[in-house]
Design a protein that fits this description.
The chain is built from twelve helices and five strands. By secondary structure, it is of the alpha/beta class. The radius of gyration is 22 Å and the shape is elongated. The mean pLDDT is 92.
Length: 266
């Protein structure tokens, strides 16, 4: 719709922007570096951030950056994840049907991982998204899972990804044993005003245009509305581009952003 009006070759601010074109501030580069290190050394990492700050995007970028000849990435995202479904889900991704009982399935997983590492020379990287929704039983299972060969090594890199409340939960006294096992902790922050502008320009560049479409005052309003959360920046920018195309506006100013926010997003 608006792509033709603005002469875009690709759609900016969409969820399917290739990771190679995603804006990477220094903060994001540092987090990616830490997560790559966790994958290499088979460590336990926790990534937290407020809603819309790009946690799933970081996971996509990590997956795309890992050499598929060296790593296999296993991904789970289930708000009702139980230990049994955890093992079943991982084994299914390895092409193995899980045994019914949790203990049997756990032994199956360890066996498959040892075969994979020994014969295929692949290191597993397990990512559990929406981890702030995991209950205590599942979080305790994570601790038991990482006990391998008398706790002398980790069978996998394990990355828990969730909203900020995950870290608050892990700070509770009852989760001390799990918290002490965490090797790397990363926290995604909101963009500041300058980063929000750079983010918008990076997406417009990906879409195939180098000229400004959003005025400086428009970006001020976008930042004020979004608070620097990438998901909200995407949302308001997309709505503004639709509005601009429908009304024949080549430049989107602050008045138009305010109209869109009040009329469509409030």
């Amino acid at each position: 719709m608006f792509e033709e009006f603005y002469g875009f070759s690709s759609t900016p601010f969409s969820r399917d922007v290739p990771t190679s074109h995603i804006y990477q501030p220094v903060m994001l580069e540092e987090i990616l570096g830490r997560l790559k290190y966790a994958a290499q050394r088979q460590l336990f990492a926790v990534v937290t951030g407020d809603c819309g700050t790009g946690k799933t995007t970081v996971i996509r970028m990590l997956k795309d950056s890992l050499d598929p000849a060296k790593y296999i990435v296993l991904y789970l995202a289930d708000s009702k994840l139980t230990p049994r479904h955890f093992y079943k889900g991982l084994l299914a991704q390895l092409g193995v049907e899980a045994m019914f009982y949790r203990g049997d399935a756990k032994r199956q997983l360890h066996h498959e991982i040892e075969l994979m590492r020994g014969l295929q020379h692949l290191q597993p990287v397990v990512i559990v998204d929406e981890a702030h929704l995991l209950d205590r039983e599942m979080l305790e299972e994570v601790r038991f899972l990482l006990n391998f060969k008398m706790d002398s090594q980790s069978p996998m890199a394990l990355i828990l990804v969730g909203q900020s409340e995950l870290w608050n939960k892990l700070h509770m006294q009852s989760y001390t044993a799990i918290r002490q096992r965490i090797d790397i902790q990363c926290k995604l922050a909101h963009f500041d005003r300058a980063q929000t502008e750079e983010y918008i320009r990076a997406h417009l560049s990906y879409a195939g245009t180098e000229h400004d479409i959003f005025s400086d005052q428009a970006i001020d309003e976008i930042f004020r509305y979004s608070g620097g959360a990438a998901r909200l920046v995407n949302k308001v920018c997309t709505h503004c581009l639709i509005y601009g195309a429908q009304n024949g506006k080549r430049i989107i100013d602050d008045r138009m952003v305010k109209l869109v926010i009040q009329g469509e997003l409030s």
